Automatic annotation (TrEMBL):
<keyword id="KW-0500">Molybdenum</keyword>
<dbReference type="GO" id="GO:1901359">
    <property type="term" value="F:tungstate binding"/>
</dbReference>
<feature type="binding site">
    <location>
        <position position="65"/>
    </location>
    <ligand>
        <name>molybdate</name>
    </ligand>
</feature>
<dbReference type="GO" id="GO:0046872">
    <property type="term" value="F:metal ion binding"/>
</dbReference>
<dbReference type="InterPro" id="IPR005950">
    <property type="entry name" value="ModA"/>
</dbReference>
<dbReference type="Pfam" id="PF13531">
    <property type="entry name" value="SBP_bac_11"/>
</dbReference>
<dbReference type="GO" id="GO:0015689">
    <property type="term" value="P:molybdate ion transport"/>
</dbReference>
<keyword id="KW-0479">Metal-binding</keyword>
<feature type="binding site">
    <location>
        <position position="173"/>
    </location>
    <ligand>
        <name>molybdate</name>
    </ligand>
</feature>
<dbReference type="GO" id="GO:0030973">
    <property type="term" value="F:molybdate ion binding"/>
</dbReference>
<comment type="similarity">
    <text>Belongs to the bacterial solute-binding protein ModA family.</text>
</comment>
<feature type="signal peptide">
    <location>
        <begin position="1"/>
        <end position="28"/>
    </location>
</feature>
<keyword id="KW-0732">Signal</keyword>
<protein>
    <submittedName>
        <fullName>Molybdate ABC transporter substrate-binding protein</fullName>
    </submittedName>
</protein>
<dbReference type="InterPro" id="IPR044084">
    <property type="entry name" value="AvModA-like_subst-bd"/>
</dbReference>
<dbReference type="InterPro" id="IPR050682">
    <property type="entry name" value="ModA/WtpA"/>
</dbReference>
<comment type="subunit">
    <text>The complex is composed of two ATP-binding proteins (ModC), two transmembrane proteins (ModB) and a solute-binding protein (ModA).</text>
</comment>
Length: 256
């Protein structure tokens, strides 16, 4: 008797599975996310996992936080901002462009001095004082928090005046990393997440800048007004606080 029922039961279970998948697909939505350039690698992985686990899709745009602020202020329809700092989300909230009391710190960034050449950057960062390099890359400190942190670190080390003629500025931290990766700059200040995967520096040489040399790089998420009633936006913000996303974030050199 049970043998005769088995095919029918499998068919019923299969039908319910298809029905559930159809419901999830019908409820799935897309959320538009402005992502700080330093968070590119982890966010790409998180977005893929988010879509697999929830059915929602995160449409990602990467760039400098300062530029995103200008775009949002001018009406860009982003629903979530994953900022490279904590001041921009607070400012957007104060100006009524972000939902009040919805922002939170999704990661704390780490600044590193990096060269694509193995052994070029020493473990104490002494190369800043003794190296004969021609170019040192930093992100534009006026719009990029990692660039601002780099300037603060150089000021505290007392090397800003000497290094000023050698500085080349990237529009954002992604372009800054590209300058160093291509050899157009012998070294540069970048985000640890750009040169780390699975807890290891992927290539070249690096010095992790001590946190005391610059203000903490607290990276906050903001729910923007266009995302106020979006189920996908709410789901992504919740997902970012979950264990799976945090494991990915931590593996790229961030803390909380």
């Amino acid at each position: 008797m049970l043998q005769h029922l088995a095919p029918a039961l499998r068919a019923i279970v299969g039908w319910f599975g298809l029905a559930l998948a159809s419901v999830q697909t019908a409820q799935a939505d897309t959320v538009s996310v402005a992502v700080a350039a330093n968070f590119t690698a982890p966010m790409q992985k998180i977005a893929a996992a988010f879509q697999t686990d929830t059915g929602h899709k995160a449409e990602l745009s990467f760039g400098a936080t300062g530029k995103f602020y200008a775009q949002i202020s001018n009406g860009a329809p982003f629903q979530i901002l994953l900022s490279a700092d904590d001041t921009t989300p607070a400012r957007l909230e104060k100006e009524g462009k972000a939902v009040a009391n919805a922002r939170f710190t999704y990661a704390i960034g780490t600044l590193v001095l990096w060269s694509a050449q193995p052994g070029y950057v020493d473990a104490q960062g002494s190369v800043l004082k003794t190296g004969d390099f021609k170019h040192l890359a930093i992100a534009n400190p006026k719009i990029a928090p990692y660039g601002m942190a780099a300037m603060q670190a150089m000021d505290k080390l007392g090397v800003t005046a000497r290094l000023q003629p050698r500085l080349v500025q990237g529009e954002n931290i992604a372009q800054t990393h590209q300058f160093v990766a291509t050899g157009n700059a012998q070294l540069g200040f970048v985000a640890l997440s750009q040169v780390m995967a699975d807890g290891k520096i992927t290539n070249g040489s690096a010095w992790q800048v001590p946190a005391g040399l610059h203000e903490p790089i607290r990276q906050d998420a903001a729910l923007l007004l266009p995302g106020k009633d979006s189920a996908a936006a709410a789901a992504l913000l919740s997902y970012l606080r979950g264990d799976k996303a945090r494991a990915i974030i931590r593996s790229h050199g961030y803390s909380f």
